[in-house]
Amino acid sequence: MDLKLAGKVAIVTGASKGIGRAIAEELAAEGMKLVLAARSADLLQEVAGSLKTETLVQAVDLRDPAVPAQVIAATVAKFGSLDLLVNNAGATKRGDFLTLTDEDWADGYALKFFGAMRLSRAAWPHLIKSAGSVVNIIGVGGRTGTAEFAIGGSVNAASMNLTKVLADRGIQDGVRVNAINPGAIATERLQVRVRTFAKEKGLPEAEAAKQLPRSMGVARFGEPAEIARTVAFLASPQAGYLQGAIIDVDGGVTRTL
What we know:
CATH architecture of the largest domain: 3-Layer(aba) Sandwich
Strand order of the largest sheet: 3-2-1-4-5-6-7
Order of helices and strands: EHEHEHEHHEHEHHHE
Helix content: 40-55%
Distance between the termini: 31 Å
Number of domains: 2
Largest sheet: 7 strands, parallel
Number of strands: 7
Radius of gyration: 18 Å
């Protein structure tokens, strides 16, 4: 299926590995020009070198309030326009609520929520011009609270509300805003949980990788490419009537309405 994305310009944050890298690879395969943002210059250069499309690397810390606007300005300076913003960057600390510090909470919001908010705000005038879109990569923890995911769950819930707010504004401005809630996706971050589960249960890691998804109520872990394909669809004219949608790509782990 031709998603009609060739020649358009996208920013992908958190693009150095995992889901972000998979998104970059998928959008490049669709012919998009890419701005790759993350903190690791070496990893970003590796990703850029593997893609058969024009790229701009932005090795930046999006927690800095001044940086998001700088990334947007650099994008427009190089490519002349912006069609898609994928807010993917941001990991939050897990742990006992009673031991999480104020600094842990502030850091959790600084990148995933405020970084995405500031990027969206700076990108908005350019997305109006291009009739472009925003796709937020959030997470199922915002729908169902769990004791060890207090920071991430609240950040994700706030990000889902922000998606709805921007989508409401986007109706009058001609900008589409949607979100994806990944479930347990097979990334480096998930391997940490697998190793912890293996240690707790006294299992080999290979067996833990089979048992952990079943303990979570799903048949298997998802693949980063499955999130990436959903991003490409949401960015395309094929999804032209989706506005404010929050899609759970989670293998069925979310059972609430």
